[in-house]
Amino acid sequence: MMKRLLVAAGLSVLSILTFADPALSDAARIKDIASLQAGRDNQLIGYGLIVGLQGSGDSLRSSPFTEQSMRAMLQNLGISTQGGQSSAKNTAAVMVTSTLPPFASPGSRLDVTVSSLGDATSLRGGTLIMTSLTGADGQIYAVAQGSVIVSGFSAQGQAASVTEGITTAGRVPNGAIIERELPSKFKDSVNLVLQLRNPDFSTAVRIADLVNNFAAQRYGGPIAEPRDSQEVIVQKPKTADLTRLMAEIENLVVDTDTPAKVVVNERTGTIVIGADVKVSRVAVSYGTLTVQVNETPQIVQPEPFSNGVTAVQPQTDISVSKSGSNVAILNGPDLRSLVAGLNSIGVKPDGIIAILQGIKSAGALQAELVIQ
Fold first, then answer.
1. In terms of residue numbers, what domain contains 197?
2. Average pLDDT over residues 204-225
3. What is the DSSP letter of 237?
4. pLDDT band at 293 (very low <50, low <70, confident <90, very high)
């Protein structure tokens, strides 16, 4: 099976059509097409303050939660804040988010993302102070702190301003330290659950058969069973180490299979046609009607020494042209034949989008049409 893909975006279709070497098949390692259920990511969230902003922080009157947070922080540090109001604009309240990778150990670091909650105009130059990051179970798994890096910038004067990118969100590289590991251990599992990133029954069955062939030689019997189009269950043999078993399985090469799809993005004019897309025999005609209207008014002057007035006489020229009215017979048993038939009409990608929609409506497109 050849790995072929058509991508067109505002250019001639064949100008960016590439075909891989026919000797290459749709083969991939299991680790590239499936993930381990026990090795999933976990999302973390926290609320914190960024200090050190150059007058671009929250206005405490419009964002009262920022002032409350400042008072609570100072009181925890032993500083009394009773009897006064602050008007400083160098502090901003932010939401802090991060992703805890699988099998993360205490002491390792994570990148965190900070996003403004109040009316701060920029987080550039600020420092995130110590913020606890919790998981869905309410437990603290990491603590974040550090300088914020903002890619956008803004500048303004009395009569004009300019802004590029987002200035109210940024990142703290390696800003979080993991303090708690996940309660579950990988080696405590009794089996391995492989989850396909692109669910497909054929691929799931092929993975199970491949693993069973390997296990029959290594462990003397089958150990894998496809549960559905997305999951394949691999039982742990009694004499096997779970980590070593996963390392051996994930490097097995399997022939993948995917359903035929045509993905169309009408906003950008991008068309992606999968390798297995076929078109039944159908006749297609595509024509473009262009109507051009030119207004050339003329000024009419009165005769000398007459009582007439200057007038405007309208004059309209209308021209009509029609191009691309060829009729082509499309019969695409494979991708190359389909593209050759579309190019024979001489249409651009925006026209191909309309043709594909018409072919689908006629029932001749043997694939799923996805319109974004």
1. 185-255
2. 91
3. P
4. low
